[in-house]
Write a structure and sequence with these properties.
Blueprint: H1 2-13, H2 15-55, H3 60-78, H4 87-93, H5 105-120, H6 128-145, H7 151-170, H8 173-185, H9 190-211, H10 227-258, H11 260-265, H12 267-284, H13 294-302, H14 311-324, H15 332-349, H16 355-371, H17 374-385, H18 391-408, H19 413-441
Helix pairs in contact: 2-5, 2-6, 2-7, 2-9, 3-5, 3-12, 4-19, 5-6, 6-7, 7-8, 7-9, 8-9, 8-17, 10-14, 10-15, 10-16, 10-18, 10-19, 12-14, 13-15, 14-15, 15-16, 16-17, 16-18, 17-18
Length: 444
């Protein structure tokens, strides 16, 4: 007992232990500040594009493809590794030994700037996935700066940074913790779990101080309904949302992998082509398909938006086109918006429950179908809407959607995309070893 007490006291007072804690805490506060800044600037960027689009409706047909091409060039030239959501890079970094090419302060800065540029150009992208990438990059860079030697600590830094990014972006601390466990690591080290939890809370509190107390979609109140109606909605939205979310994930993964050789040879042509496709989709939708989709999803959830039967399809296609341009940008917020549209469509076509319930369950069903992380999807939607009356139906919808999604897309979205970064790093390491071996064996 005394020996255990002495060991605990030494650990508590150890300068090395306090150095670790201070790095985690300082990194978490910094992540909260950066994510809060990104949230504010993203709103202004989105509003600026919509102002342009509504003033000169045909201007985005030129601005968007040219903007996507410029952002793709900047990504390739100055910020390689920052493309896409950023979650696959954070996951890949957990499996890449030593110095990571996909996590750095340069990439964090580039991610922030280029995501804002993408919104200014009319991309259907979100800031939440990039917040994970930025958070992981900040934490990883701090760890390298203070020279943490053990590999498990680098792993803890990446997990804490990514989870803190989710917590700060959505104001969902519990979802940040679950995201670290369920999506990023698929396991959890006991030695770093406490540090990750504290980092998530600190990042969330920091963002809360800057942005003020809020729920991402406000306080959503659903109508009362009999249990039979609610569980009928669970079946409809879980299966329907999960299948559509799985279809989006399958198209995104297949498109990314099959277009990879073309993207390496003609990245700017690809960015221009998908940028033009995005502009046409957005123009046909009256530009409701542009941007994060936050305002549209909030209006659908609140029941203040007239039903647009084409919104979910246009947002689905616009988000897919935006991702395939190769620019930095996430799919979390656009997927939530698409899911709200899917729920509204199902509520009009199969009105088995009040529309407010169908929209909420459709959102969690589609979102889980895309990311295939049922607990994270459930907790994110629960915390974002402050919904407490439909906890079991939300959870059941999420798991049902997870199963339905696997029928369409058996490959987990983020982990499949992360594999490409892992393979690229492995190939580069092998090439360097072969070159060093060849150089060492050359006659002098």
């Amino acid at each position: 007992m005394r020996r255990h007490l002495r060991r605990s006291t030494r650990k508590l007072l150890s300068p090395r232990a306090w150095k670790v804690r201070l790095v985690f805490w300082a990194g978490a506060v910094l992540i909260g500040l950066v994510c809060a800044l990104l949230a504010r600037l993203a709103e202004h960027a989105n509003a600026a594009f919509l102002s342009l689009a509504h003033t000169w409706p045909l201007a985005p047909l030129v601005v968007t493809p040219l903007g996507m091409t410029l952002i793709a060039w900047l990504t390739i030239r100055w910020f390689p590794g920052s493309q896409g959501s950023g979650i696959p890079q954070a996951i890949a970094a957990l499996h890449i030994p030593g110095k990571s090419a996909v996590l750095s302060l340069r990439i964090a800065i580039g991610k922030l700037v280029l995501v804002l540029a993408g919104l200014l150009a009319g991309g259907s992208i979100g800031r939440e996935g990039p917040s994970v990438h930025i958070g992981a990059s900040i934490m990883f860079s701090l760890g390298r700066w203070v020279r943490f030697p053990p590999h498990y600590m680098e792993r803890g830094l990446i997990l804490a940074g990514g989870a803190a990014g989710v917590a700060a972006a959505f104001n969902t601390p519990l979802a940040g913790i679950l995201f670290a466990i369920e999506e990023m690591s698929r396991s959890f080290e006991q030695r770093t779990s406490g540090l990750v939890t504290v980092a998530v809370v600190l990042a969330g509190v920091t963002a809360l101080v800057v942005l003020g107390p809020y729920h991402y979609f406000g306080n959503i109140h659903t109508e009362a309904a009999p249990p039979l109606a609610i569980w009928s909605a669970v079946l409809v939205c879980g299966i329907g949302g999960g299948l559509l979310g799985g279809l989006f994930g399958a198209l995104l993964v297949t498109g990314s992998l099959r277009l990879a050789p073309l993207a390496r040879r003609y990245p700017l042509r690809l960015a221009f082509g998908f940028g033009l496709l995005l502009a046409i989709i957005a123009w046909l939708s009256g530009y409701s398909a542009s941007g994060t989709g936050y305002a549209e999803a909030k209006a659908i959830l609140a029941g203040t938006a007239p039903h647009d039967p084409w919104y979910s399809l246009s947002k689905f296609l616009a988000t897919l086109a935006s991702y395939l341009t190769g620019i930095p940008g996430g799919i979390f917020a656009p997927s939530l918006a698409t899911g709200a549209g899917v729920g509204a469509d199902l509520g009009h076509w199969l009105p088995v429950a009040p529309l407010s319930i169908m929209v909420l369950l459709g959102m969690v069903g589609y979102f889980c179908g895309v990311v295939q992380s049922p607990l994270t999807a459930f907790v994110i939607v629960m915390e974002m809407t402050a919904e407490r009356d439909l906890l079991l139906p939300l959870l059941a919808t999420s798991f049902l959607a997870y199963g339905a999604s696997h029928l369409i897309n058996p490959r987990p979205l983020y982990h499949t995309l992360a594999q490409a970064f892992i393979e690229k790093d492995r190939t580069q390491r092998t090439s360097r070893r072969d070159l060093q071996s060849k150089t060492a064996n050359e006659p002098r």
